[in-house]
Amino acid sequence: MPPDACQQPAQHSRLLRLYSALFYAGSSFVITVVNKTMIATLVVLYAAKMSKTVQFQDFDRTIPLKIFPLPLLYVGNHITGLASTKKLSLPMFTVLRKFTILMTMILEVFILRKTFSKRLVYSVVAIVFGAMVAASSDLAFDVEAYSFILLNDAFTAASGVYTKKKLGTEGLGKYGLLFYNALLLVIPTLLASAYTGDLHMALTFEDWVEAPFVFCFLTSCFMGFVLMYSIVLCSYYNSALTTTVVGAIKVRTRRWEYCFETESTGTA
After folding, report:
1. pTM reported for the whole predicted model
2. What's a single GO CC term here (predicted)?
């Protein structure tokens, strides 16, 4: 398989754009029952590179500069995301995530020098206006929680736009972007897990000897890789805005799933 092209064509076919978006939406929905992991990404892509199934640039001193600032945006996205979900209800979290769409559009204009039709701009403004109306009825207004979710929106938007930009970097491509982003994050993540005690709890977990748990864990790891690959693939064939909108649809689907769960269990 030849290396990923450094410069993307101006336009991809509609089928590729549609299928990549559906792939991201499906993977993103399935991942609601599993966790993402960077180690799985490293193992899968390294094995694929060694077997010459995929090709990407070998590591050198230019890689961190080529990847920057994606690792920082990834960490910021996860920290603010966890902080906001702890303080906000799922419905309000879903509503405020709509601001990511507007932020993505603005960043695409300034960073990628992209232009949008008036009809598309009006559609995005309508979505954000609806989110503002819904948020105005929140009786449990929490400044800290709102700050975290808006920061999370900004990190998500910036990550999507810079992912699109970095996909055109010479020698990197889809697979190199995934692999080296995970590589630069895995050691700091392990150190942070050791510091907080999460790593010790994981290593001493008693169900490691249970086959069903190990199977579910490995499935979780693989689906983590599939999700991250689907995001990059969707960004490669579509705009960063399309990827963001697909992510917003996924969040809405998760909200419907939550409603069905609470209805079936009889909880509010």
Report:
1. 0.79
2. membrane
